[in-house]
Each structure stands twice: as C-alpha cells, then as structure tokens.
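Predict the assembly for these two chains.
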Amino acid sequence: MTTSPDVRVRGLSVAYGSLAVLADVSLRVAPGEFVAVVGPSGCGKSTLLRVLGGLLPAGARVRADELALPVGPDGRAATAWMPQGDSLLPWRRAWANVLVGARIAGVPRDVADGRARALFDEFGLGGFERSWPHELSGGMRQRLALARTCLPQRPVLLLDEPFGALDALTRRRLNAWLASVSLGSAGGASAAVVLVTHDVDEALLLADRVLVMSDRPGRVVLEVPPRSDQSARARVLSALGVDLPALA
Amino acid sequence: MTRAALPVRAAPSTALADPPASLPSARGRGSRTAVRRVLAPTLAAVVLVGAWEVVARTSGLPEFVLPAPSQVAAAGVESAPLLGLHIATTLTEAALGLVLGAVVGLALAVLIAAFPVVADTVYPLVTLTQTVPTVVLAPLLILWAGFGLLPKVLLVALTVFFPVLVAAVTAMSDVDGAHVDMVRGLGGRRWNQFWLVRLPAAVPGAFGGLRVATTYVIGAAVVSEYLAGTSGLGVFIQRSRKSYDVDQILVAVVVIAVLTGALFLLVDALGRLATPWRRASR
C-alpha cells in the first residue's frame, strides 16, 4: 500500500537578509504519521513549521527544490497550525473559541457543533463550554487551542510547542493524554502531525519519527524511529550535543 | 514534663488570640477610610457652598452678579416647570448626535482597518481637520443646515466622531499579532482576520473613545443653542443672561452637569454590557 506523503519538503532554505535560518532541510510526512522535530532554541524549527503553515513574514527569503502540502478543495494548503501560546480570543467563550477554525474553514454550523461536542468530551472540557478563556487553567486553555486546531479536520496538523508554556507537571500529564488520543482528520483517519519541541522526552513519547535539527542555520542531522530503536534517546541527546552520564 | 508541655500549648493560644485582636482594628481602619472618602468631599462642598452663601449675603454684591446658593435653589424650584422642555430639546440633540457620531466614527474606523487605501488617503485628512475645534464650525452649520435640530445634532456628532474613530482605529491596529497569526494558521484570509480578531478587538477601544466623547456632548449641544434656536438649555441660558437672571444661569449649569454625568454613566453601562468578557475578569 503506497500512499503519497502528505508533506514533501526538499532542499528548503530560509534566510532573513543575511541571516540563514534553515539550510537545506528535507522532510516527508506520511498520512497519519506523527513526526517530532527537536532542536536547540533558535535552530529554526518554528520557522520550518511556519513555512509549512504558510505563515512566514514578508521579509523572509524562502528557497526549496520541492515544497508540497495537501491542498483543500478551495485550493489552499490544508494545514492547521497551532501557536506556542494558546491565542484564544478573550471575547469568545470556550465553545465559540473552538468553533473559530470551523468558521474559517466554512464547516456548516450543525456539523461543527457536533464535532465540538465530541472534542469537548474527549479533551476533558465538558462543563466549561460557557467559560471565558481567562477563567480556565493553562492546561485547559492549551487543550482548548488544540481542539480548535483539530476541529476543521485538516489532514496535517502543525503544532509549535503546544505545551511549551505550561509547568513541567501539567505538561507531562498533557503529553500522556495526547499520546492516548487520536487527533482525528476527515473520514475518521488520523491526521498527520508535525510537532516542534525542545523537549526530547516529549518527542520520544509522542512521535513515530523524531528529527533532530542542528544549531542555526538549522538542518536535519538525525532521524530516529523511537518505537523500534532502543537507543533512540541516547542518540537524540548526543546529536543535540548533550552528554549523558555513563550508566553504571 | 508538664512544664515542658505548657509553653507548647501556650504558643497556639497566643497565635489564635492575635487575629481577633487585630481584625476589628483592621476593619475599623477600612471603614474609616471609606467614611473619609465620602465624608471629606461632602464636607468640603458644604463648606464651599456655605462660604459662597455668606459672601453673597454680606459683600453687598447685587443679586444679578452673584446670587447666593439659596437663591439659586429657589430659582431652580421656580423655573422647574419651564426647564423640562429645554432639557428634552438639549438631550435629544445630544443623544442623536452621540449615536450619529459613534456610528459614523466606528464605520469609518472599520473601513480604515479593512482597506489600507482608505487608511492612507482618508485618515491623514480627517486628522488634519481636527485642528479646527468643532464649536468654531457652529455658525457655518447653522447657515447650511438651518435653525432647527439638524445643525445641533451635526455639531454634537462632529465632536463625538473623532475620539471614537481614533480609539477604534488604534485598537484595531494594536491588535495582538498572535491572534492574527492563529487565524492565518487555520487558513484564515484577511476577511476572517478582520471579522474574528480586528473588529471585536476594537469594541473596548471604541467604547473608551465614546466615554470621553460623552463628556462633551451636552456642552456642544448647549453652545450650538447659544447661536440659534427656540428651545434648549442654551436658549434658556441666553434668555436668562439677557434678563440678568444669573441665578437661572447657575440652575442651568447644575442641570448640564447632572445630565452629562447621567449620560456618562449610561454609556459606561452600555460599554460594560458590550464587553462581558471584561466584566467577568474584574
């Protein structure tokens, strides 16, 4: 069974003026695949995600041999990007915030309401439909933002440090939860996910494949499948230049 | 052994004894500042009015220069039946002008935010016109729009328009870039960004401008009535001036102050209703 990858990037370079941010990055993501990109701060991993989400600022120079993304019926890239902060709109209650993505995608109201109901229950947000964003905890806000990103059922989700702003404990709990849910896409199939993080354990826990990026200008220096590679953690850490103490 | 136990037991009892002793005094201090906040300005006002009364009665100044507060109060009671119609006229002009100015100001702000071309061509011109104080335009407006309600409503609207426009445009351009990016990241176009982020973000700002503008509207209506008209507090003041009824002028001043305050409270309440998410965060 060969399906063409959802995301194909080859030879991608991005520069702001004379500052090279990404150099010759290649990346393929299969439908339903969960890919994590880890790297040191400032290595350009967020820039990579912004390129995939069509969000680069006007001043950036982007070159690529190939940059293919799934396209929706309206001819636009069918990706859903989630920023590091939750970016919930303060003037919308929780329920209306989750429907923002559906409004943009033009999902009919009754369909969107049904999906929102399911997401509220699955994401543990039931009972908070009428809350204002500032009344919710940080963890709930992030789950709400994730639900907003999932609701249009785009085939590719781009998550930029989705839990990066949370405390370590909440973050661990949310990661365990995220590993247990499937982020649905059209037709019940799982969406492909590109997750950017600087947390190695988060990447290893969640992803089918982990890409390690170098310091700026960022390039992919290592690719490991954590589920089948016993030494994945050590290899990722050494690729990041973190020396592990010898295990006695 | 019992000796060793005693201090241990004694310690919590002193710790418990402390708060009840300090609590009433803290509460007393709190209510004392509250009393001072209300009482002090009230007392100051009473003293000032009293001093005015004494000066007016003892200085020998004629009544048509400085009437005593008691005379003003008496004039208020006397002219109350007459005032109703004048108040209705002024309030109508102020309210219509306030609504018209707010609607036009907000609409232009929306156009400016939605179309950069409009922002580049219209906004500098509008800003330039603000070098002309609106009151100065009153004679022109009366020339062009007649002696009726219209020129007064227009003058009030012109006074309201600019603060609302500037506040709304500023709120829309200072919008959180992260919110705009979020909408773009979900595939949102300019139109989506505008409806989902910029427009709702402008509401609190527009109401801020409207609150400021509200404090001017009664005054603007009264000034336009000075120049022309048959009814309104401005007309009442002019008539009183011509007959040297200074006490009646002062009655009108008090009425204008009360109306302005009431209108401000009304707009403030509307602003709270329109931004429920802020009320909840207070």
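The mean pLDDT of chain A is 84. Helices of chain A lie at 45-53, 94-98, 100-105, 109-122, 138-150, 168-180, 200-206, 232-239.
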